[in-house]
Amino acid sequence: MKNIKARLSRMSFNKNQLKLTPAYIILIAFTVFMAYMLGWILFASFSSTRGIFTGNLFQDGLNLDSYRQILFNSNGLLTIFNTLIYTVPSSLLLIIICAPAAYVLARFEFKGNKLTQQLMVIALSVPGIMITMPLFFHFSSLGVHDSRLVIILLFTANSIPFDVYFLTAYYKNLSYSYEESAAIDGAGPLRTFWEIMFPMAKPAIITITIFNLIGKWNAYFLPLIFANTPGMRPVGVWLETTITSMITTGNYSGMFAAVVLAASPTIILYFFLANRLLQGVEQNGVKG
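-> structure tokens emitted (288 positions)
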């Protein structure tokens, strides 16, 4: 009897696997295609323009001139510095602001709690373009629009609604027993949050930090309005102007080098932290 049940279980498992076969084929094909395209772009960045158009990428040998030009003659190093200045502080500020705010909204009942959460959801539906130009007008009137600090603050404010909404949902799914145990031991709300609840939200915090880092690194429209000068441009705006310049001059090897330089940090970040990203998203829907 046990053998029959085991065989039936295996047959059921095999049928389920067969149903998923088309999906696996599509995923494998897509993965191979993306790997080929990314690999070709990487090799093309070390090639010459002539090698790219003839199809023999390394007929002139390994070419590093494009990277030298991008880094030292096209403000590549300054662009990376600018992007780090905008991205890292804004991501840290978002954790400091949104983690306590989400905890309070999720765990404490007070007048205006639900209204605040509803406003956060409404804010998510507001297109950024609707508020960017009015902000630029007011900052220009104050004479502070051309400032790295302003861009950091705008990057931070722009992501507060989503981060608070995401972390609030996570904190709601944590058990109250941790706070009850902390209260029995004499810990106040502030100590309970920073020493117990904040560390427990680590998967969600890592997830939104990855989202923030990638989003700020690739940001285009906001920096285009507030940081569209050679000394202030981050990667998104710099890449667009550099590609246009390289196409105009016919330096396609330099164009691919600029693409690799701009995309590499986010690809590397996602490659090493993909498991943590998926863990945070999955645990956000699991009741503690």
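The chain has a mean pLDDT of 84.
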